[in-house]
Amino acid sequence: MTLHGNNDAVPPNLTLGQAAAQFLLELPPADRHKAQQEIYKFVRWYGEKRRLSELTIPEVANYAEQITSSTTEVAEKLAVVKNFITYCYKKKLIKNNLAVHLKSKKAPPKSFHHSRRHHRRTVSLTDQGYANLQAELAALIDERPHIAEELKKAAADKDFRENAPLEAAREHQAHVEGRIRELEATLKAATIMDDKQTTSHEITIGDTVVLLETISREEVTYTLVDIREADPDAGKISVVSPVGQAVLGLRKGNKVVVKAPACIINYEIKDIKHH
Questions:
Q1: Rg from Cα positions in the chain
Q2: What integer best gives the mean pLDDT of the chain?
Q3: What is the dihedral of CA 34, 38, 43, 45, to 10 degrees?
Q4: For labeling, which of 3, 159, 214, 266 is most exposed (least CB within 10 Å)?
Q5: pLDDT of 53-70, one tens digit each?
Q6: 172 and 82 in one domain?
Q7: Domain residue limits at 104
Q8: Whether residue 9 is found in the same domain as residue 100
Q9: What is the dihedral of CA 38, 44, 45, 47, to 10 degrees?
Q10: Residues 90 and 54 grouped into a single domain
């Protein structure tokens, strides 16, 4: 697969969805068609609205576990995603080339592999998060007739050699259908956290945590959610994010050290709000 050279300035803080769209547009049509399915799968896994700059090394390193194919197919699919991540690095959208951490792993024993896959299907969601995903699914299903109409109109143009609207409509349909399948699978496997968690003094998924930065004395508030609910702009961070991993299982008053990409941040857990 060949990337087109492009020295145009790229807006900072792009979301995964925006970066993926730009990457695909810069590929030759034939390569774009081959790459879009794997790129959109990668984007859906971490969230279309997730900021590209927030991807972590552990997240990228573990992505290969989500691909269930033969060894050859896994390598091919990972190569597509590696090209995308490398592109983002060259465009200076991320500080480090995370592509070097994206490697296929040896398959564990069959029984263990089956257990791991079964475990990964379990998704813990808050009431609001479940409702949000249901609403998104309903909206995408309602969009199907409109997409079908777009395809019909675009296909009416008999000059398929330069029919960009038809190609765009097909890509949009593939993206929407992929997201629908992802949402349906997530909701089917989801468990909604109940009130039993409120009896615990330890931080768990669904809790809102107030952190006090020990040097600046600045307070920040985060709600810990599943990666599928993550929305940094709304103060919802994934439990696999650096802050999420650092505070899980701790209690009010505990000190915590968060290893950020550019520095180390020291916090004190000032308050925990159970939901």
A1: 21
A2: 77
A3: 160
A4: 159
A5: 887 877 777 776 656 444
A6: no
A7: 1-119
A8: yes
A9: 140
A10: yes
